[in-house]
Amino acid sequence: MTFKKRRGRSIGRETAFLVVPLLAASMALMPPTVDLPRAEADDSGAAAQRVVILPSFLAAYATFDQKLGHVAGTSRIEKADFEKDILSRIYSDVDAIVPVNIPPDPEAMLLLNPDALITQDIWLPMLKAVGLHRVSSYQYSASLDARLAQWLELGNISGKMARAQALRTHFLTSRDKLKASIGSRKEHPRVAFFIGGTEVGLGFLYGEILHLNGLIDVLGAINVSRGNRIRTVPTPESVAVLDPDFIFLGSDLAADEGAKKLYLSHEWQIVRAVRDKRVYRIHPSHFFAPTLDENLLLQWFAEILYPDLPRTLRSAYREEFHFIHDTTLTDDDLDKLLSIDQNAMSAGYMRFSRKNAINRSH
After folding, report:
1. Cα–Cα 20 to 30 A to 103, which of 89, 125, 138, 309?
2. Does the pLDDT at position 361 exceed 50?
């Protein structure tokens, strides 16, 4: 595939986050890169027995503990989101977790009697002020190193550091294998990200502060808004000036938004990626869980940006969920995880469907 270079014409106006499950893409059915310790083999005296998790870390915590029985409370939104996630079928003890409001009420936190609490950094002072101990905070960062450090901190709180480190190693090794499978290429696909659709229509055009930049850097792609630290609402004119080869939409779009709406819009036909039907909705993901999600998301991007790569995505999902969660995905599960219906009209996407997926090299 040849990527068209940006046109020199100007049309006018200037023009979150996500995180999502793991493997490399260079060959089908690749064996795991590490031996993954079982949760019960990794307990320590420091493990929290009643943890309250306010950020979107339930999926990560379940991955360490292989249960949610030690989670006493979480934000109301996080619990509701997890209950709709495929992981809730595996970790059904989410039902027993007490939902709490955000911003948190310090007295309500005390009543939960946690021996560890994970919070956003802005609420750290008021929670410590009421006498809560072993309070850990985080600040959103687009830096992979910062997110991996948070991952290891969760491993420490859960008493599952060996498992956390093994998954970190698996993530980095798989990422490097995928990067090697892509190799050095003359063409660098240009992409645009529309993120935050719950706030406004198609979302915002994100540049410098987006964590997904680290993924597409690995793949040799370019965010056409890189360098722009202010999110802007995309318009047909502003995106046509940027002239991306691909447009990626956030998973939080309303049901009536998305690729189909762009394809049917007369105004958006001035955008080459729309005319070429290269608009893709990113599948739902787990925030701040890089070793849990980002290798599979990385492979998803790679197989869209470089159609000549081996088609291994569905088998990668099956292997990774079995490796990490000891569960078997059905074809219906895979169709949902890969957002097959939402992307059915987009160029080449049906190769990921159950009928057309080919888990070997072409």
Report:
1. 89
2. no
